[in-house]
Structure to design on (108 residues):
């Protein structure tokens, strides 16, 4: 599964609820430390999730504050590291689509 393949779905989910691609990108940059240019290259190169998270410049230490259920599973209980990172991102995009304020999504 590639990050680039899932990314359009994140944007669509957000836009259907009146949020923006820019907000999706801000969340992803906050979570991973990628710049906007790096993020666009990743999407263009169809980078897979393993490489996407494995090469992330600076995984945000505040991501451990992301709690709750996504796809019926508590995010904080996922043991497999890559799946936990993917679900952190899913949870943040879900919060965006549900109308949560960016400051809260970004754990400020």
């Amino acid at each position: 599964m590639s990050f680039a393949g899932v990314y359009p779905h994140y944007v669509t989910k957000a836009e259907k609820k009146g949020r923006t691609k820019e907000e999706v990108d801000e969340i992803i940059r906050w979570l991973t430390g990628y710049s906007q240019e790096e993020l666009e290259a990743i999407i263009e190169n169809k980078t897979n999730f393993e490489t996407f998270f494995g090469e992330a410049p600076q995984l945000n230490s505040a991501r451990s504050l992301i709690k709750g259920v996504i796809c019926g599973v508590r995010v904080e209980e996922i043991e497999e590291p890559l799946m936990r990172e993917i679900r952190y991102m899913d949870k943040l995009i879900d919060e965006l689509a549900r109308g949560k304020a960016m400051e809260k999504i970004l754990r400020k």
Remarks:
- The mean pLDDT is 95.
- The first strand starts at residue 69 and ends at 70.
- Residues 27 and 106 are 7 Å apart (CA to CA).
- The domain at 3-101 is CATH 1.10.8.290 (Helicase, Ruva Protein; domain 3).
